[in-house]
Fold:
Amino acid sequence: MNEWAKQNIPRYKEKVGKSPTVALTDRNNGGMHEATKKVYREWLRERTGRPVGAKVDWKNVSPKEIQRLSEDMFDAAKVPELTRREYYRQLNKYLYTLD
Structure:
């Protein structure tokens, strides 16, 4: 959801690459990254009518919607609750240090 953040959070672009992430692999949980791509493609299809190749105007995606998409992707990848909490804690810490 980096693209959403770049277009919706002032000054986020300056520190891209240093923001918190959750590493997903295809070795764990039956393909974590593949699972998230399926969720994203379904979201994209519902939003644009196309599961791939559609342009998203990220400025028209609300914080609530991006949060829901993130959680749906975490669910699909079977990301543990503790990992999610730590990710959001680090993300909030990161966002509040942008100047």
Notes: The mean pLDDT is 89. Residues 11 and 99 are 7 Å apart (CA to CA). The chain has one domain: 2-8+22-95. DSSP finds four helices and no strands in the chain.
